[in-house]
Specification:
73% helix; globular; mainly alpha; 298 residues; single chain
């Protein structure tokens, strides 16, 4: 009798994606030694597209996007590229913790409003507790927000853009994820390269190195895995709680910043990370698996 294979639940997928996205803050800084801001976005997006296109070719399975979903996929791809550009700029101008604070704060508020008002998602007591814990954690960073530096502003823009992007992703259930990713990274590469040529033609390649090339390749692979996890997670989880789970990347990011760059979190940052981690646990364990969360294969 063949064994059954159980896939990740939506919560597990999103929590894994949160950690991987936290590592990208480190990779952004390491890529900055070789690439300019827009150029590094184009480089990693372009490499991801090449990998996905090659995989699709050797796989021999042609998958197209339904005509009714093409506009949504295009919008999702453009928003994803824009949000990542904001994150790239932010993490180079402030600490990893501050970037993640501003982005998660605006993303949380935006997702709650969009999910509740536009998608009519039910607001339960568990959701309110999880979101309340996240708000309490993010409120401890209010002093950093009031400083008004460019890094925090780009973090705010990144979070707001991501909230809208996640709303669009919610509407793409049923569309092949590999096809979405090819469009996302292909269009993102074109937009990033165009931006680099228009706004920073003298800051495309700073210093060529084997380390820079290696980091670019690792970044591309991380993006492929993490984006697949996000798309899977949002198709199997409520958008309000999904955003709370993804906000756990704040705690992961602060820890990585401390371990790698010796960015010692302030007391309010430590407390914020604890509160948001608690919210992520409540969110990911509070929803019982249902048929749509678990796939069984022969």
């Amino acid at each position: 009798m063949p064994k059954s294979k159980t896939s990740l639940t939506g919560g597990e997928a999103l929590l894994s994606a949160a950690f991987l996205f936290a590592t990208t803050n480190v990779l952004v800084r390491e890529m900055a030694h070789m690439w300019g801001s827009q150029a590094q976005l184009g480089a990693r997006f372009g490499l991801v597209w090449v990998i996905l296109a090659a995989y699709a070719h050797f796989r021999g399975k042609k998958v197209s996007i339904p005509r009714s979903k093409r506009l949504l996929v295009t919008a999702y791809s453009a928003l994803a590229a824009l949000s990542i550009l904001f994150f790239t700029l932010s993490v180079q101008m402030t600490t990893i913790a501050n970037t993640l604070f501003t982005s998660n704060a605006t993303e949380l508020v935006g997702a709650f409003l969009l999910g509740s008002l536009l998608l009519r998602e039910k607001v339960t007591g568990r959701k309110l507790i999880a979101i309340g814990l996240s708000f309490a954690g993010l409120a401890l960073y209010s002093g950093a927000l009031l400083s008004g530096n460019a890094g925090l502003i780009f973090g705010l823009l990144g979070g707001a853009t991501t909230a809208v992007c996640n709303l669009v992703a919610k509407q793409l259930a049923g569309v092949d994820r590999s096809a979405i990713l090819r469009v996302q990274f292909g269009l993102g590469a074109v937009l990033a390269i165009a931006a680099a040529l228009l706004f920073s033609a003298n800051d495309i390649i700073r210093t060529v190195s084997l380390e820079g090339v290696a980091v670019t390749i690792v970044f591309a692979l991380v993006l492929i895995v993490a984006t697949n996890l996000v798309l899977y997670g949002f198709h199997h989880f409520d958008i309000n709680i999904a955003t709370v789970v993804l906000s756990s990347q704040l705690a992961f990011g602060a820890l990585l910043g401390f371990l790698i760059y010796k960015e010692v979190p302030a007391p309010n940052e430590i407390m914020s990370g604890v509160l948001i981690a608690c919210a992520a646990v409540i969110a990911s364990t509070g929803k019982k698996p249902v048929a749509s969360d678990i796939d069984v294969h022969a």
